[in-house]
Amino acid sequence: MTEARDLAERAGDRDPRVGLRAVTALRRLVEQLEAVQVRSARQQGWSWQEIAAELGVSRQAVHKKYGRQ
Asked: From which domain of life does this come (predicted)?
């Protein structure tokens, strides 16, 4: 996870260009990690409601985002 740590450090850079690029990269990384974990939860039999509760979103939101994958 050194990449994530490096990106987190760069997100706090005094140069907004460096910081914003790091934020964008972190956002992509988080989206990828979330998808992996949602897929894992579904494979283990979790309901959309259980996943939504852990993510702090509605069941409808998580199903809409991942339901067709």
From this structure: Bacteria
